[in-house]
């Protein structure tokens, strides 16, 4: 009686062992069919490439006579899924920064932290090394947008169409310099 129990216990233990494998961060892995890191990276790279290649953006940069400074604002998630917009915003900032066609200005939250540090330096740092006030680069443009989704289900099948729309607007004039849209459609079939 004890041997079969031990065999069953060992079989159960081996079947419950967790397996972890390291993979390259850019490896596309879809487990649930929901929005994931691959979707964020794909859409961010595509949209920023389109933005930087657009004739209107190039004309704007030419009028300014220098690389435009862009701040990435709010990207609203209007899908039914929880999508961490901070991660998505960071991917957009990385794509803009790596494009070398525009400057990235820190977000409002991070600028506040920098200003606090600058204020503290006025009292506590060596005067020769103190960061000066009034030297920040003002953003010319703000990038913002929204993510939406349309879902259709039937039996054990689901189709989700994710739509990301981004707007790039001149902060001084309110004029829209560029806007683009990317869609990712997923078909999920459960066993």
From TrEMBL:
<protein>
    <submittedName>
        <fullName>Penicillin-binding protein activator LpoB</fullName>
    </submittedName>
</protein>
<dbReference type="Pfam" id="PF13036">
    <property type="entry name" value="LpoB"/>
</dbReference>
<dbReference type="InterPro" id="IPR014094">
    <property type="entry name" value="LpoB"/>
</dbReference>
<dbReference type="GO" id="GO:0009252">
    <property type="term" value="P:peptidoglycan biosynthetic process"/>
</dbReference>
<dbReference type="GO" id="GO:0031241">
    <property type="term" value="C:periplasmic side of cell outer membrane"/>
</dbReference>
<dbReference type="GO" id="GO:0030234">
    <property type="term" value="F:enzyme regulator activity"/>
</dbReference>
């Amino acid at each position: 009686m004890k041997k079969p129990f031990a065999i069953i216990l060992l079989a159960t233990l081996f079947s419950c062992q967790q397996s972890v494998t390291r993979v390259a961060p850019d490896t596309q892995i879809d487990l649930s069919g929901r929005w994931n890191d691959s979707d964020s990276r794909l859409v961010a790279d595509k949209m920023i490439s389109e933005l930087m290649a657009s004739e209107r953006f190039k004309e704007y940069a030419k009028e300014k006579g220098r690389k435009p400074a862009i701040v990435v604002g709010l990207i609203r998630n209007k899908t039914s899924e929880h999508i961490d917009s901070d991660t998505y915003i960071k991917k957009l900032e990385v794509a803009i920064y790596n494009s070398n066609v525009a400057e990235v200005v820190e977000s409002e939250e991070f600028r506040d932290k920098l200003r606090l540090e600058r204020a503290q330096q006025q009292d506590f740092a060596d005067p020769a090394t103190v960061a000066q006030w009034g030297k920040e680069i003002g953003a010319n443009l703000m990038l913002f947008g929204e993510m939406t989704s349309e879902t259709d289900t039937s039996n054990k099948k689901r189709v989700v169409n994710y739509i990301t729309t981004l707007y790039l607007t001149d902060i001084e004039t309110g004029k829209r310099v560029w806007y683009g849209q990317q869609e990712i459609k997923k078909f999920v079939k459960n066993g």
